Structures are given as C-alpha cells and as structure tokens.
C-alpha cells in the first residue's frame, strides 16, 4: 500500500469514526424523552453564564501569569500548576547565511537541521 492509499484509508477510518459518533448521538436523542431534553436544555441555559464567566476569568489570569513570567524571565511553580519560561527562539536569515557560507564555508560547521515532521490536514 503506497502513501496515497494509506492517506485515503486514514480518511475512510476517520469518516467511519465520525459516522459512528453521529449515529450514536442520533440514537441517544431518540431514546431521550422530551422532558429530559428540556431539562438538559434548562440546565445548560442556567450554567452558560457561569461557564462563560469562569472561562473569561481563566483567560485573564492566564494572561497575567504569562506576562509576569515573561517579565521576571524565569519559571514559577505554584502548588498545582507550573508556568514554564521558554526563552525566545533564535532564528537567522537562512537565505543570507547560505549566501555568506558560499564565501565562508567554515560557518557550515555551525549549521544544524532538525528532523523532518509531518502534519496531516483536511483538504
């Protein structure tokens, strides 16, 4: 099986998984009495503002923590969470460095290339 066939097989498996989940949800909906559906809708409506408020609070505190850690320049460990400081990645103008390396091949000793990676995306 070549790579294109494997990708097509992967797409089929993903579609089958999604179809099964959809059918399961349909059957659960059919099995649920109208009163239960309404009760679930009411509960979701009741909790929506609380969920929204806590999500916004989490976003705000997360931003504050990240800003603080960047400002102090080091990781901070709490009782339950750890904010890990990662210094900015250094990059070079690859095109310019390759041109420079033609005249100064000794700089190639400092060139490192990472391993290739693959991401699978929907078309």
Topology:
Elements: H1 3-31, H2 34-72, E1 76-77, E2 82-83, H3 94-103
Antiparallel strand pairs: 1-2
Q: If you had to describe this structure to a student in words, what would you say it looks like?
A:
By secondary structure, the protein is mainly alpha-helical. Helix content is 63%, strand content 3%. A hairpin with a 4-residue loop joins strand 1 (76-77) and strand 2. The longest helix has 39 residues, at 34-72. The radius of gyration is 26 Å and the shape is flat.
Work out the helix count.
Answer: 3
Q: Give the oligomeric state of the chains in this entry, treating copies of one chain as homo and distinct chains as hetero.
A: single chain
Poorly predicted runs = none
Assign a percent range to the helix content.
55-70%
Order of helices and strands: HHEEH
Calculate Rg over CA atoms.
26 Å
- How are strands sequenced across the largest beta sheet? 1-2
Note the beta-strand portion.
under 5%
Judged by helices, strands and strand pairing, the structural class is mainly alpha
Distance between the termini: 21 Å
Main sheet characteristics: 2 strands, antiparallel
Shape: flat
The overall pLDDT, averaged over residues, is 94
Query: How many E-type strands?
Result: 2
């Amino acid at each position: 099986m070549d790579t294109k066939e494997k990708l097509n097989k992967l797409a089929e498996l993903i579609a089958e998984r999604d179809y099964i989940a959809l059918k399961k949800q349909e059957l659960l909906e059919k099995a649920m009495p109208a009163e239960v559906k309404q009760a679930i809708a009411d509960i979701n409506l009741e909790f929506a503002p609380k969920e929204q408020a806590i999500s916004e609070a989490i976003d705000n505190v997360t931003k504050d923590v990240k800003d603080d850690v960047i400002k102090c320049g080091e990781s901070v460990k709490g009782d339950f969470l750890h904010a890990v400081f990662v210094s900015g990645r250094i990059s070079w103008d690859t095109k310019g460095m390759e041109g420079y390396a033609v005249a100064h091949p000794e700089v190639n000793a400092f060139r490192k290339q990472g391993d290739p990676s693959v991401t699978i995306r929907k078309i």
